[in-house]
Amino acid sequence: MVEEDVRFVPPPEAPVYEPTEEEFADPLAYIAKIRPEAEQCGICKIRPPPDWQPPFAVDVDHFKFVPRVQRLNELEAKTRVKLNFLDSIAKFWELQGCRLKLPYVNGNP
Fold it and tell me: What tens digit of pLDDT does each residue of 18-49 get?
């Protein structure tokens, strides 16, 4: 087996664009403008002008969401393993012609 000379060659740095405020007045148009050059590298970095502020898209006065209640004991892997085990036992007894009824405490088997 012949060993090849394998060396890591770091990729070239990604281009960094620093548009003026006039160029960045329409960010999507600016991106379309630099796209042919930036696509050659596969990635690029755009540093917006220092005074540029992105428009805030969320109306904080009317924005509401309902948080999901997630019980910590249901996140544990052993709980999933236990439920899979109980499902397997129930399927086994069902194939044997018997029906297994699992006891539930507070809605949990």
Answer: 999 999 999 999 999 999 999 988 899 999 99
How is residue 10 written in tokens? 């770091």
Q: Are 17 and 45 in contact (CB under 8 A)?
A: yes
Q: Which residues contact 70 (CB under 8 A, 6 or more apart)?
A: none
Number of domains the chain is built from: 2
**In this structure, which amino acid lies at residue 4?**
E
Angstrom distance (rounded) from CA 45 to CA 17? 6
What pTM does this model have?
0.46
The domain containing residue 31 runs over which residues? 13-51
Q: Which residues contact 51 (CB under 8 A, 6 or more apart)?
A: 21
Residue 17 lies in a domain: yes
Domain assignment present for 86: yes
Tokens (6 digits) for 97: 């012609």
Mean pLDDT of 70-94: 78
Q: What is the CA radius of gyration of the chain?
A: 29
User: Rounded distance, CA 60 to CA 29, Å?
Assistant: 28
